[in-house]
Amino acid sequence: MTSASTQVYAPTPSIPGELKVIQDATCTFCGCVCDDIDLTVKDDHIIEAKRACVLGKAWFLNHSNDDRPSCLIEGKPASLEEGYDRAARILTDGKYPIVYGLSDSPCEAQRVAVSITDWINGTIDTTTSVCHGPSGMAFQGVGEVTCSLGEVANRGDLIMFWGSNPAESHPRHFTKYSLMPKGMFLPNGRKDRTCVIVDVRKTKSAKAADIFIQIKPKKDFEALWTLRALAKGVELDPELVHRETGVEFSVWTDLMDRMKACKFGVIFFGMGLTMTRGKHANSEALLALTRDMNAHTRFVAKPNRGHGNVTGADNVVAWRTGYPFGVNHARGYPRFNPGEYTTSDTLANREADSGMTIACDPMANFSQPAREHLASIPFIALDTKETPTTRAATVAFTVSTYGINTGGTVYRMDDVPIPLRPAFPSPHPSDYDVLTAIEERVKKIQGVTG
Amino acid sequence: MSETFILIPGRTTDQGCGISEGKFQDKYQNEINSLQVAPGDMSRLGLSTGDRVRLTGEEGQSVEVCIVPARKDELPEGLLFIAYGDISSRLMTGDTHGSGMPTSKGMEVTMELVQKAVV
Fold first, then answer.
1. What does pTM read for this prediction?
2. How many whole angstroms separate alpha carbon A135 and alpha carbon A147?
3. Mind listing the pLDDT tens digit for each residue in A232-254?
4. Is the complex ipTM higher than 0.90?
5. Pick from A34, A331, A347, A404: CA 20 to 30 A from residue A195's CA?
6. Do the domain assignments include residue A141?
7. CA-CA distance, B39 to B45, in Å (whole number)?
8. What is the CATH number of the domain that holds A188?
9. Using CA atoms, how far apart are residues A400 and A251, in angstroms rounded to an integer?
10. Which numeric CATH code is attached to B2-115?
11. Same domain, A139 and A126
């Protein structure tokens, strides 16, 4: 099957023994989505990934064509057609089917997954719910004062990281976007910027900071509210602030002075906020602080997103349903309720009775009650590699790797869409191909024409 | 020996590279099964590199891991760090407190020695 996405950006087949260079390829390992990678390909294997970071190199050099069946049903090799038929029956037989994952799929495939969920009156959720889902809730409550990474590179003179360790999770963040670039208004690059890192432990990123502030664990909210009070000129008890945050009051006043004095402040925040007690309240506090700072100077905030197209998942699910994740279609129209329709909950509460996971690994990353329930229901798994989830799936599809074998569009962490430039073809179908075939069968079972 | 700590699971470079190499490969498995302990806590509790400990969460869920000393001053005493993955996620509870997100960082766990490393 030829998909719309692969027609647009189809890789050229390799000639045995010859080298092929793909310029400006896009790395989809993390949310930085670096699109300046030069790939050298030989015999359907990437042997060099110029300009890629350590994570990008591991991504490109370890995704060769996997010698596994494209489809397994109950652990036994099956044809793709049999797999599509079984998958469609699983999804249409269920009374509470869930579709989950999608953060490592191109937007074109994500769009089809939303359609399938709509046809089956199911619940769709993405890995955002266990990543920056709490920030997604906070955006709705507070709003988001933000900008593109290009603006950060050209304007940001005070760069803060809160609960985020880009040195290990986004290795090119500093050099490509936030600290090192010589920008339009920052001709001396790093020398023109001040970097502040706030975290509960002295991470590898702390080495890059001019100021490192180590707060007490689980006290992010209190620390952020301290800064909000200082921004508003509210009088505080220094001893109480020290006791609650673990940081001297003078450190906070010094930071606030710097925040007010900068020309363009940026706060990148990570899962140190969203995964810790407080969750969306922590993200709300940070976004509200950012909003408050605009009474003094220009200030923006941006979550550091993990997977290559998790930002695309938010965008696609939002433009299709009106909500970014955790969306239920049981009544025939979309309803959003984190904590009820999010996958950690539908599984741990033993509500889902069938499902489909796409480019994710809940059997390794969810709580034990959620894993036990997923293992007890029929479900379909799509992944490029074998994982605990594909091993437990009723129907497992081995799919080609987006950005390496198939094209399409992904969204960088700052919501900028980036095209993919694949390097070599795969014998496996893309997730777009698999989802499109399943959708056709679901529609047929449902009696939908057209 | 049994003491309460705060556990911080998080991303590491080796964990990230290990995902691409394969989740059943040694690099990934070694990384997500290694618990970093502050050197001060290790000496205070008489722990050595390679000792096997049991971590138990608030609802009794538990895992066993081997310990390694945290690098320099990366980890304050009272905190534990482990690369995010299968093991750390087993310590989460099913409750998301209405957010969709289980508490995955800052979890209170008790740590007890199971087996000393063979020298």
1. 0.95
2. 16
3. 999 999 999 999 999 999 999 99
4. yes
5. A34
6. yes
7. 10
8. 3.40.228.10
9. 50
10. 2.40.40.20
11. no
